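idk why but the lab printer keeps eating my pages so im just putting this in chat instead. protein + coenzyme A:
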Amino acid sequence: MFHIKPYEPNNIQKVANLLDQAFGVDRLQKTVYRLREGVEPIGALSFAGCYEGQQVASLQFWPVLIKGDETTYDAILLGPIAVAEDFRGQGYGLKLMAQGLERAKELGYERVILVGDEAYYQKVGFARALARNLKMPGPVDYDRLLAQELVSGAMNNVKGMISNINSSH
Ligand SMILES: CC(C)(COP(=O)(O)OP(=O)(O)OC[C@H]1O[C@@H](n2cnc3c(N)ncnc32)[C@H](O)[C@@H]1OP(=O)(O)O)[C@@H](O)C(=O)NCCC(=O)NCCS
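predcted complex ->
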């Protein structure tokens, strides 16, 4: 049976291996990783997906900012999410995200962004249309920049640059 647990300290290396297999070791070069540089993932939103005691999936979220001309908004970045190759296509990715997003809502987060395939992520509530006024701090395929409201209306009038929480500009 697949079940979802909070991260434990001994997950770290297993998760790095899982992510290297899923995304390749050059994953750290992607623009989205700039948003994570020097920032810890949200501990309460770090999940291990397990099958018969073995970790086969991982989901984390990072805090980010959306900096507009006058207003800065808090948001969270979903990802990375990875399911080990042999365990894909069984709904585990969607289960992990549904649980993670539910927990994020309970914790009071209002909006989530991610870079990914809309055809997949719309199954858990993401839409390209909600991210049209957002920019990324580097090269990205804007068709894949998506957002979700955890509180109705949370993306209304939200415009600006998605930024690392430590960036000064
Ligand atoms: C993406 C990933 C996390 C999905 O996990 P998963 O457990 O295999 O996905 P699920 O089984 O929950 O997917 C269920 C549904 O989404 C569909 N789906 C999966 N990827 C899709 C895509 N890119 N576009 C559209 N639909 C997709 C499946 O066909 C399935 O649909 P169905 O229920 O109608 O048959 C996993 O494939 C993975 O780790 N990939 C490599 C890493 C990666 O690309 N991560 C995401 C980067 S943004």
